[in-house]
Design goal:
Elements lengths: L4 H15 L12 E6 L13 H17 L3 E3 L3 E2 L4 H10 L3 H18 L10 E2 L3 H16 L3 E11 L4 E3 L4 E2 L2 E2 L7 E10 L5 H6 L8 H11 L1 E11 L5 E6 L10 E4 L6 H4 L5 H12 L3 H4 L9 E8 L6 E6 L11 E4 L5 H9 L8 E2 L12 E2 L10 H14 L3 E7 L4 E2 L12 E3 L5 E3 L29 H4 E3 L6 E4 L13 H4 L12 H7 L4 E3 L8 H14 L12 E2 L4 E2 L16 H8 L1 H10 L7 E2 L2 H16 L2 E2 L7 E2 L1 E2 L5 H19 L3 H16 L4 E2 H11 L4 H12 L31 E7 L2 E8 L5 H9 L2 H7 L4 E7 L3 E6 L1
Parallel strand pairs: 1-2, 1-24, 3-4, 12-14, 24-25, 26-27, 30-31, 32-35
Antiparallel strand pairs: 5-6, 5-9, 7-8, 9-19, 10-11, 10-13, 10-18, 12-15, 13-14, 16-17, 20-21, 20-23, 22-23, 28-29, 32-33, 34-35
Length: 815
């Protein structure tokens, strides 16, 4: 009987949907496991084969945990607000909700065709009023705690798109979408005070089971620094400005000052002779994103203001420049430049022929030295090591009332306004005097009105500003008129808490019940791309901590364990994209090879965290593996009916050993997310039993269970065959293979016959010994001394001690 996924897979997908097989239980007494994918933005292009990789990994774990007796929450939903749908609406006039819902329908069809065991009863969409009702409610909690405020700030303004863009939406001074020029422009915006949580966001990273690289990215993004904040006076005027430095011991090496082009002092101190050049430089800088300006590899640029500052430690005059490597949003917007001991300052000074004064002994002459050393040419701190010199410089500044010891963070407050239609409206009114009036809980949600045009006004307001009937609100009691806030929230608003809504998605009275949140949270495993390391992941942690402080959630961290999957690249080894023409549609793969083959192939490609190229030829090998697996249950008979191959016959000792080794390997590899090696072991199992004229029932039942998380459709089909064709009664307490108890292995049957012990002398490998597991140290020492390659390094030496790591290493320490 040939393996026919086109018949098998739709059959079981319909069965799972009808029976709601994967619906999480409301029995909060069972042990829980919450496994979550970073939910997708439902684009019109649908899935490509890179998307199912992460979903397959979490699905394998979800199915395994159900079989292990856990109450599993494995939901799916949609990050549905976003700029692409709005841009399409501007071009075509089609409401973003229509195109978004069409994309959701397509995504859902594709995901269901791959057999993922999502609890579809908990499906959410961030663009649904039922959902963003509670996003608005959380915003009001932030406002109540003083964490949401309005402020005029320099933003990335795109005249073509007529909206503010986040830093990550700007590439090389142009909008990521469309490639339009972007400028810095001061605008009044809603901000969230994430900086108040900087220290907690930093400290709590230590307790998370996350990739160290991601934690380090967040540490760097938060950017804690301890140093001196002090004032420099502008020569010949009453103006002054503050700088912050972590190296006050290098004050004597300051050879110029650098201000951000946006610094308010620039216009006051720029000389007439330099005004034209400064204005041109400011315009150029306004077209660069903060990310581009911080790029250490780019060539340094700047413009002299014509003004000078007075160095307070020695009274010397130093030039004041503006440079785009200085950011108004970081620190004070001004830096003291010490070219001899800062690489960035060194490059700048070399380019503009500015003095380079060495004040720390170390490094080579003519090169920048940024390490610790001994202070030189530095007045009263001469001869002190960096730590002591820094301490003394801070004490001096505080005594002279020139500065104070300070802690600074690179992290900036979260810019939370967008001048768009397709986003969550703010639950905010303003009275005639412009005072903010937050809405009451019973006035939520504020829903989006219909508009004639989705195009922003171009004056800094969203399309909502033109909807007078929606914008104007009359108090029914007092008759007083109010105006609604017309900015909308960014897409990151809804995605910063969606994992909480999954706990209780149909609750109309509250965002979640305390009982449900306490049971399900935190997420046990969160899987998604590393591109969200400092955006979504940081924002989600911030919102969770705020909600924890409000007494609304039971945990201050949302995700216990985090894993980043690698990318599935095109067959050319490049990232899949339409422009490269290397995108593989999973629908085509499923049609030809089946969903189970696609699932196993993507897991077999290599370690989950690594990038790997797609290979159509290789997936054919996986399909053959599934076909061979199927033939362990069914025998091809040329004349007459196909014969069921599974029989209630005993296993040989070799069969038993193979079975229990496979149980152990597959179990441990699922737990360790080493899916590729678990598949390899199942292939070994299939090879072993393929030669059997009949396959033993006891082995085939277990193999079906082991295969099920990876290839659930074929496994269900074989499980059904065992209990129908094979007439082996299905246990009444097991409604589906999905809940059959995961098999255990016999430790005695998985012991290796031999282990290889490395024999070292003074830590260097000098030979190996093949021995039975558990061989004693005394026996091993005797064998090693008789081994020629080892004995010659022991000859004439005194053995001081022997270090033995059981079954692995025997190391002789000699003199």
């Amino acid at each position: 009987m040939s393996y026919q996924p086109a018949k098998i897979e739709p059959k079981w997908q319909k069965h799972w949907e009808k029976e709601q097989t994967f619906k999480a239980s409301s029995d909060f007494k069972k042990p829980k496991y919450y496994v979550l994918d970073m939910f997708p933005y439902p684009s019109s292009t649908g899935l490509h084969v890179g998307h199912p990789e992460g979903y397959t990994a979490t699905d394998i774990l979800a199915r395994y945990k159900r079989a292990k007796g856990f109450n599993v929450l494995h939901p799916m939903g949609w990050d549905a607000f976003g700029l692409p749908a709005e841009q399409f609406a501007i071009k075509t006039g089609v409401h973003p909700a229509i195109t978004t819902n069409e994309a959701i329908v397509n995504f859902t069809k594709q995901l269901k065709s791959l057999g993922f065991s999502f609890d579809w009863s908990r499906e959410i969409s961030t663009a649904s009023p039922d959902y963003y009702h509670w996003t608005q409610w959380i915003f009001l909690k932030l406002y109540e705690k003083g964490l949401a405020y309005q402020k005029e700030v320099a933003v990335n303004w795109c005249p073509e798109l007529k909206t503010v863009l986040a830093n990550e939406e700007v590439v090389d001074g142009k909008s990521e979408r469309g490639g339009h020029p972007v400028f810095k422009k001061p605008m009044r915006q809603w901000m969230l005070k994430i900086t108040e949580y900087a220290e907690r966001l930093l400290q709590d990273l230590d307790g998370l089971d996350w990739p160290e690289s991601t934690k380090e990215l967040q540490r760097n993004w938060i950017g804690k620094s301890i140093g001196l904040q002090m004032k420099f006076k502008v020569d010949g005027s009453s103006n002054e400005f503050e700088i912050f430095t972590t190296r006050p011991d290098t004050l004597w090496g300051v050879s110029y000052m650098a201000l951000a082009p946006e610094h308010p002092l620039v216009n006051l101190i720029t000389t007439v002779a330099q005004k034209s050049a400064v204005e041109k430089y400011k315009l150029d800088a306004s077209q660069k994103s903060e990310i581009a300006r911080q790029d250490a590899s780019k060539e340094k640029s700047g413009c002299f203001t014509g003004a000078f500052a007075i160095n307070p430690v020695n009274g010397e005059k130093v030039q004041i420049w503006i440079s785009d490597y200085v950011l108004m949003t970081y620190g004070t917007g001004a830096v003291m430049a010490v070219p001899a001991h800062d690489e960035r300052d060194f490059e700048f000074a070399k380019k503009f022929s500015l003095p380079i004064v060495k004040v720390v002994e170390g490094g080579k002459d003519g090169e920048c030295f940024s390490g610790d050393g001994v202070a030189v040419n530095s007045g009263f701190i001469n001869g002190l090591k960096t730590v002591d010199a820094t301490k003394k410089a801070i004490e001096w500044a505080e005594k002279e009332k020139l500065g104070t010891k300070s802690v600074k963070y690179k992290l900036r407050d979260w810019l939370f306004s967008r001048q768009r239609y397709w986003g969550e409206p703010f639950p905010i009114l303003k009275d005639k005097a412009g005072n903010i009036v937050p809405l009451k809980d019973n006035e939520l949600p504020v829903t989006l009105p219909d508009v004639k045009s989705y195009e922003p006004t171009g004056t800094g307001e969203s399309p909502l500003a033109g909807i007078t009937a929606w914008r104007e609100v009359k108090d029914p009691k007092t008759g007083e008129m109010y105006l609604r806030e017309t900015d909308t929230m960014p897409g990151s608003a809804g995605s910063s808490w969606y994992f909480l809504r999954y706990c209780d998605p149909h609750n109309v009275k509250e965002a979640w019940s305390k009982e449900a949140e306490k049971y399900w949270m935190p997420v046990d495993l969160y899987l998604g791309g590393d591109e969200h390391a400092v955006g979504h992941l940081l924002y989600s942690r911030f919102w969770t901590k705020v909600l924890f402080d409000c007494g609304l959630v039971s945990h201050s961290e949302p995700f216990k364990k985090l894993v980043h999957q690698g990318m599935i690249l095109g067959e050319d080894g490049e990232k899949m994209s339409k422009s490269r023409g290397n995108v593989i549609n999973p629908d085509d793969v499923v049609k030809e090879y089946g969903a189970d083959a696609l699932r196993i192939y993507e897991m077999f490609l290599g370690p989950l965290e690594k990038d790997k190229p797609w290979s159509t030829k290789a997936i054919e090998g996986v399909f053959r593996f599934l076909s061979r697996s199927y033939r362990l249950y069914f025998m091809d008979v040329k004349d007459g009916e196909d014969q069921f191959k599974v029989a209630d016959i005993p296993m040989t000792a070799e069969d038993e050993k193979m079975l229990h080794q496979t149980i152990k390997k597959v179990t441990e590899d699922i737990e360790g997310l080493r899916f590729n090696t678990g598949i390899s072991q199942m292939m070994v199992f299939v090879n072993h039993f393929t030669a059997h004229p009949q396959t033993p029932l006891s082995a085939m039942k277990v193999f079906t269970q082991l295969l099920a998380p990876y290839a659930p459709h074929i496994a269900e089909e074989m499980w059904e065959a065992i209990h129908t064709i094979g007439k082996h009664e299905m246990p009444k307490e097991i409604p589906s293979l999905s809940y059959a108890v995961w098999p255990s292995y016999n430790p005695e049957l998985v012991k290796a016959e031999f282990v290889t012990v490395a024999v070292q002398v003074l830590g260097k490998l000098r030979g190996t010994l093949e021995v039975e597991p558990g061989t004693t140290q005394a026996v091993l020492e005797g064998l090693a001394k008789k081994t020629e390659s080892v004995a010659k390094f022991l000859e004439g030496k005194e053995i001081i001690k022997v270090i033995y790591v059981q079954n692995k290493i025997l190391n002789f320490v000699v003199k």
